[in-house]
Design a protein that fits this description.
Layout lengths: L1 E5 H6 L1 H9 L3 E6 L2 E6 L2 H8 L4 H13 L6 H5 L14
Parallel strand pairs: 1-2
Antiparallel strand pairs: 2-3
Organism: Candidatus Thiothrix anitrata
Function: Antitoxin component of a type II toxin-antitoxin (TA) system.
Family: Belongs to the phD/YefM antitoxin family.
Length: 91
């Protein structure tokens, strides 16, 4: 379960939010309606970051499961969002 809380709500209700994450929920902290942080339980944190290899292990499991999928560079490039608002510049 994902719950949203503003920074002010989080400040005023921290004990309640901690109980919520201990029960398995995630709390997304927002500022002006945009998520800026996530409050998770220590147990979940350890699951995600144990030995620093959780992401790598997830990628390897995905590759084992879907390794037979052949993708070419052109197909992957076609997935890019090329809308004008998505432009990028170093300037």
């Amino acid at each position: 379960m994902m719950e949203l809380a503003t920074i002010v709500e989080a400040k005023n209700n921290l004990p309640r939010l901690i109980h919520a994450v201990e029960s398995g929920g995630d709390i997304h902290i927002t500022r002006f309606g945009k998520p800026v942080a996530v409050l998770i339980s220590e147990e979940r944190y350890q699951q995600l970051f144990r030995t620093g290899k959780a992401v790598f292990q997830a990628m390897m499991q995905w590759r084992e499961q879907y390794g037979s999928i052949d993708l070419v560079d052109e197909e992957i490039d076609s997935w890019r969002d090329r809308t004008p608002a998505r432009g990028f510049s170093w300037d």
